[in-house]
Write a structure and sequence with these properties.
41% of the residues lie in helices and 16% in strands. It is an alpha/beta fold and 360 residues long. The termini are far apart. The structure holds pyridoxal-5'-phosphate.
């Protein structure tokens, strides 16, 4: 195991495929955190945090960055920046911002949301263009923001097309609508597609990325945008309760993650594919291999005669933790703390289950 390897701390599971947020900081990451030079970030005096914000902004082709404790806060700061109370954001119905941030846009910022239905979260410019409403004065809610998620979590790790994003950018520019990228897994998209993160990043007014998912840091996200936008977001971050003090300790984990854990995401993608291929061979119809693009695999366990709840319990009995994402669908997520041996165990258990439906 190299410096990029995950924690050796013991897990109660033989393979924990619940989420890529489970990664525990490795020894080398913890050492980098312990060495971090820190200061009070509310006073703008944490050098390690500054370095992380500047680095991520530069990587994504933006002027400035802002560290946040979570991806949800980074997204909600982006939303707050572009949408006035009483206006709306639009996105697909599976988007994390509309589905899993617990109504934050409405609760914290007085913003309404409308959604279109997508196939696996796949972004199409025409869906955004046909839903957005602009220039309707006092008669209807005005669209101020389009949200794109890349890769798409509930869609199953879907990588978005840069061409579609560029087409949408053209329309939104003409109509005075902003674009925010929820890039919690943008580095997975980069590794899978070969598209530089800056090519994705430049098409958006703001971008959030997470260090705490596949990149393996324990905490943290970064929002990037113009220097003015980040200055305004710094005020809102404090207002939302996200002003931090010696957070350079966390930023050091983020810098370590960017140095060591980006290119290795390809290992997670390869393991996810290997497992998906094994399941597809054991029970054709349970997984469509064309949908396996990154580190997330969605199994249609109903096609093998299972409910997702029963399947999750049976997998757990075999030491493999998975996640029910629908009555007949189960999600598997590969990450830093699931190696080849863990993948072998997962393949054994999951292929055994899809071959043998429970008796009715
Ligand atoms: C696509 C996406 N965006 C944002 C988030 C929010 O991140 P956090 O849990 O750090 O708030 C997640 C979390 O899983 C996510 O999957």
């Amino acid at each position: 195991m190299g410096a990029s390897a995950g924690s050796s701390a013991s897990s109660p599971f033989k393979a924990d495929l619940l989420s890529d947020t489970l990664t525990r900081p490795s020894k080398a990451m913890r050492e980098a955190m312990a060495r971090a030079d820190v200061g009070d970030d509310v006073f703008g005096e944490d050098p390690t945090l500054r370095a992380l914000e500047e680095r991520v902004a530069g990587m994504l082709g933006h002027e400035a960055g802002l560290f946040t404790p979570s991806g949800s806060m980074a997204n909600q700061l982006g939303v707050r920046l572009h949408v006035k109370p009483g206006e709306e954001l639009i996105g697909d119905s599976l988007a994390h911002v509309v589905r899993a941030e617990l109504g934050a846009a409405a609760v914290l910022s007085g913003i309404s949301s409308r959604t279109w239905v997508s196939e696996r979260g796949r972004f199409r410019a025409e869906d955004a263009a046909s839903l957005m409403i602009t220039g309707v004065g006092p008669y209807q809610v005005c669209t101020s923001l389009v949200i794109v998620e890349n890769t798409h979590n509930f869609g199953g790790g879907t990588v978005q097309s840069l061409d579609e994003i560029r087409r949408a950018r053209q329309v939104t520019r003409e109509r005075g609508v902003a674009m925010h990228l929820d890039g919690a897994r943008l580095f997975n998209a980069h590794v899978a597609s070969g598209v530089p993160v800056s090519d994705y990043g430049r098409e958006f007014d703001t971008v959030s990325i997470c260090l705490s998912k596949g990149l393996g840091a324990p905490v943290g996200s970064v929002l990037v945008g113009s220097a003015d936008a980040m200055a305004e977001s710094r005020v809102w971050r404090k207002r939302f309760g996200g002003g931090m003090r010696q957070a350079g300790i966390l930023a050091a984990a983020g810098l370590f993650a960017l140095d060591h854990n980006v290119e290795r995401l390809a290992d997670d993608h390869a393991r996810a594919r290997r497992a998906a291929e094994a399941v597809a061979e054991a029970a054709p119809g349970v997984v469509d291999l064309a949908t396996v693009e990154t580190n997330i695999v969605i199994l249609d366990v109903a096609a093998a005669g299972w409910t997702s709840a029963a399947f999750v319990d049976a997998a757990l009995a075999g030491g493999v933790r998975t996640y029910a994402v629908g009555p007949g669908a189960v999600r598997l997520v590969w990450h830093l703390d699931v190696d080849d041996a863990g993948t072998d165990v997962a393949i054994d258990v999951l292929t055994g289950l899809v071959r043998s439906a429970p008796s009715a």
